[in-house]
Amino acid sequence: MRNVRAKALLLAGVLSLFVLLLCKDFIDNNIFNLEEDAREDKHQIRQLIQKKPYVYSWPACQQNMSAANITGFKTLPQHIQDFLYYRHCRHFPMLLDLPYKCGGADKSAEVFLLLVIKSSPGNYDRREVLRKTWAKERLHNGVWIRRVFISGTTDTGFEKERLNKLLKVEQREYNDIIQWDFHDSFFNLTLKQILFLEWMEQNCPNAHFLLNGDDDVLAHTNNMVEYLQGLKDNDGSKHLFAGHLIYNVGPIRESWNKYYIPVQVQESNSYPSYCGGGGFLLSGYTAMVIYNMSQSITILPIDDVYMGMCLAKAGLSPASHMGVKTAGLHIPSRKHDVYDPCFYQDVLLVHRFLSAQLYLMWNILNDPNLECGPKKNLSSTKL
Ligand SMILES: *[C@@H]1O[C@H](CO)[C@@H](O)[C@H](O)[C@H]1NC(C)=O
Ligand SMILES: *[C@@H]1O[C@H](CO)[C@@H](O)[C@H](O)[C@H]1NC(C)=O
Ligand SMILES: *[C@@H]1O[C@H](CO)[C@@H](O)[C@H](O)[C@H]1NC(C)=O
Ligand SMILES: *[C@@H]1O[C@H](CO)[C@@H](O)[C@H](O)[C@H]1NC(C)=O
Ligand SMILES: *[C@@H]1O[C@H](CO)[C@@H](O)[C@H](O)[C@H]1NC(C)=O
């Protein structure tokens, strides 16, 4: 009897100590937190208590064997044959998801600028430097910038497994990767884009604006926020699609070219106007219109042209913003350093930047002592 009571007492003691430690931990964690951390905590608690709203678990899509009947199929390069076999596939199993990146669909209007960065599994060093520089999740000018990397899979066998594991490990630390189980290749970028828009419709439909771009650019996200805030008549609920405008072009018919599109893929000799895929800005509204249009437009493997096709079908136009330099920056003379930060303080986006230059440039651009003369007004888009 005494033995049982002693055990009960001991148990009660251990339990209360445990509760005490928990409380202490809770208090320690909460007293000194900044706003951002508090938000992260809430975010995590929500993840724990809410169930996933939607499970993406599509079966693998079957090859379309009839594609081989297309005239001249055997003469086409391998990657184009692959494309034609799988052109109809629009759903792939999800490997990594971020259902609460925007706080859930209902809260997603709290995201002002969502950075959507195409990145292949192997590009770890690029992701790492972007997380520390322009793609850092933060409050800027009173509004939230959030980040997602979108990825497929590369390689096969052990190498594929290892790269998937790398993304899993990164996800555990940064919570910023959406990955589907399709082959991440140049000709599957349109697929990646559509899969992202589908994700957005489910999980982040009310984000105000998006930057859609590559992982090898310098995106001046501070300037972007300021530019977008300056659009007095558009809070993201109206049309916006701005970048490096390309028009009056059509499919390249030379088979050695990276952008080769044979008539078997597109018969027409012209493309609609579009913005170069290195990086462009769009409103949440326009993203959802594009997603709607994409449902009834056959996939064209060149992703930026495909976005142009979706806009055209909706009767909307892409616009040119002179701050987006996807073809690089024009430096007036050889005497100038191409990495002189003063050339970059007014840009929205420059392609392309390697990790070390990017890390340095972003730090210099954010140095309050940087002296370059007055900043240009970025609020003017011109067609
Ligand atoms: C395509 O070719 C296969 C044999 O290679 C044939 O069975 C099929 O009927 C052909 N036509 C279509 C439209 O699939
Ligand atoms: C398969 O390919 C053929 C030839 O291009 C095409 O006519 C057919 O619509 C495709 N089937 C599907 C399911 O996309
Ligand atoms: C696109 O991804 C699918 C699924 O992994 C793959 O079967 C197909 O070959 C890929 N297409 C290209 C052009 O890489
Ligand atoms: C997209 O389509 C859905 C369903 O057809 C519709 O409810 C929604 O308003 C559309 N969104 C836009 C932005 O066009
Ligand atoms: C920038 O230009 C826009 C329109 O051209 C104008 O409305 C705005 O006041 C300007 N902003 C500054 C800071 O000069």
UniProtKB/TrEMBL annotation:
One of its GO terms (biological process) is protein O-linked glycosylation via N-acetyl-galactosamine. It is found in: Golgi apparatus membrane. Keywords: Glycoprotein, Glycosyltransferase, Golgi apparatus, Membrane, Signal, Signal-anchor, Transferase, Transmembrane, Transmembrane helix. GO terms for molecular function: N-acetyl-beta-D-glucosaminide beta-(1,3)-galactosyltransferase activity. Residues 1-23 form the signal peptide. One of its GO terms (cellular component) is Golgi membrane. InterPro entries: Glyco_trans_31 (IPR002659). Gene3D superfamilies: 3.90.550.50. Its main location: Golgi. It is a single-pass type II membrane protein. It comes from the Eukaryota. Belongs to the glycosyltransferase 31 family. This is Hexosyltransferase. It comes from Gymnodraco acuticeps (Antarctic dragonfish).
